[in-house]
Structures are given as structure tokens and as C-alpha cells.
Design a protein that fits this description.
Shape: globular
Number of strands: 8
Helix content: 40-55%
Largest sheet: 8 strands, parallel, barrel
Bound molecules: phosphoenolpyruvate
Strand order of the largest sheet: 1-2-3-4-5-6-7-8
Strand content: 15-25%
């Protein structure tokens, strides 16, 4: 069911001591309400630390990527089954930084989502257009192409996805889509998800979400929470966004 979900994407940040401080502030400060959840997606080496720290808290955790393969000769890769052993609930797939810097195609992202589902984890599937694509007015076709690839792979499991709309031009730039701009794209995604029998999927917005813009974004009809990068590294900011 659609609830409010706010997920922190730590990206390649952190360290054992800094993580411990951040996690203890999150544990102390987070009071879950009905239908409200938060999670942190952390670099692989810190999964054991996060699993131990959050084990008896209501805060979930996950990884920022996953292999599309189950096992084998894929040096440097991490499988969904391995993530499951660390108690991960989520794996982000298709983040624009993976698409841009590591060549993750729509087909690869779909295969990663399918592998994640097969291990009982929830993929957080990121879709979003570049600035050039927005200027060329192809936002809708880009995000639907990205989503359709995953829906085709997920089949009946589509309802188990979380989807994050993250306009590439808003990630880490301080420039956010206006609530109305984001809602337009979320509504398009919701319609497509409904057609796949997955209308209740949580649809997150990501891209420079901060405490001062979260309330307006999350008030939109089809925005169910956020995927938060920079602001997830500061407990006070992340908690303020989660409470928005
Ligand atoms: C992200 O990394 O998914 C993200 C949205 O980053 P930021 O909040 O820093 O824009």
C-alpha cells in the first residue's frame, strides 16, 4: 500500500565513525507514524555496521546498486542474495549516476530490478530525464521508456516496486522540480503503473529535496515521499524531511 517513504542515498560518503554518529541520531530522532517509513541506502562495506545499528529500530536499510547476475565470475559485483543476508530491504537500481557513469542501460536496470525482486528485496527504480531531454520536451517518453523496461521484466511483481522520479538536472544541483512539475510526471508514471496493476506503488521524488521544499513536494497527490541524497547525510535535515 502507498505510505510515506523517505529514503536516504548516502552515495559514496561515510566512514565508520561518521556513520555511527549519524545512525544514532536517526535512531534517537525517528518516531514512525502510521504509514511512515524511512530507510538508508549505504555503501556496501557499511551494510554490516548499519544492519547491527538498526536491527532493533524501525529504520530500514538497503544498498545503492546490485548485480543483475545471481552469482559467478563478475568481479567487483554484489548479488541481491548477498544483500539479503545483510537484512537489506531495498536496493536502488537505475540511479542516474549509475546510468551516466557506469553505462547501466534500461535493459540492465530491468535485469537488476528482476534480480532484486527474486531475492525478496524491494528495488527502488530510478527514472528521470536530463536537462536536454526536458528542454526537448521528451520527459514523458524518457521516463516511460525507463519504467516500461522494468515493468516488462517484473511482470506480476510490478506491485512490489518502489519508483523514484529523479530529474537528472535536479540531482545534487540545488535546483528542484517545482511541486507542480514533479506532480505532472508522477501522474504519468502512476497511470502507467496502474495499467500494469501496480497503482499502489510508492512513487518517490528525488532531486535536491531539503527541509524547506519537502512539505510542498510531498503534498502533491502522487508523491509518496522522497529519495534524498545530500540532505540524508545530516540527521537533522533528513529527519525534518521525513517528518514533512
Ligand atoms: C540522489 O542522489 O538520489 C539525490 C536525489 O541527490 P540530492 O538529494 O543530493 O539531489
Amino acid at each position: 500500500m502507498r505510505g510515506k517513504l523517505v529514503v536516504g542515498n548516502w552515495k559514496m560518503n561515510g566512514g565508520l565513525a561518521a556513520n555511527a554518529g549519524l545512525l544514532s541520531e536517526l535512531i534517537a530522532g525517528w518516531k514512525p507514524g502510521p504509514g511512515r517509513q524511512i530507510a538508508v541506502c549505504v555503501p556496501y562495506p557499511y551494510l554490516a555496521q548499519v544492519a547491527a545499528a538498526l536491527a532493533s529500530s524501525p529504520i530500514a536499510w538497503g544498498a545503492q546498486d546490485v548485480s543483475e547476475h545471481a552469482s559467478g565470475a563478475y568481479t567487483g559485483e554484489v548479488s541481491a542474495a548477498m544483500l539479503a543476508e545483510f537484512g537489506c530491504r531495498y536496493a536502488i537500481v537505475g540511479h542516474s549516476e549509475r546510468r551516466q557513469y557506469y553505462g547501466d542501460t534500461d535493459a540492465v536496470v530491468a535485469a537488476k530490478a528482476v534480480a532484486t525482486l527474486a531475492s525478496g528485496l524491494t528495488p527502488i527504480v530510478c527514472v528521470g530525464e536530463t536537462l536536454a531531454e526536458r528542454d526537448a520536451r521528451v520527459t514523458e517518453s524518457v521516463v516511460l521508456r525507463q519504467l516500461d523496461a522494468v515493468l516488462a521484466g517484473a511482470g506480476a511483481d510490478a506491485a512490489k516496486l518502489v519508483v523514484a522520479y529523479e530529474p537528472v538536472w535536479a540531482i545534487g544541483t540545488g535546483r528542484t522540480a517545482s511541486p507542480a512539475e514533479a506532480q505532472v510526471v508522477h501522474a504519468v508514471l502512476r497511470t502507467r503503473l496502474a495499467r500494469a496493476g501496480a497503482a499502489q506503488v510508492s512513487l518517490l521524488y528525488g532531486g535536491s529535496v531539503k527541509p524547506d521544499n519537502a512539505t510542498a513536494l510531498f503534498a502533491m497527490a502522487d508523491i509518496d515521499g522522497g529519495l534524498i541524497g545530500g540532505a540524508s547525510l545530516k540527521a537533522g535535515e533528513f529527519l525534518a524531511i521525513a517528518r514533512a
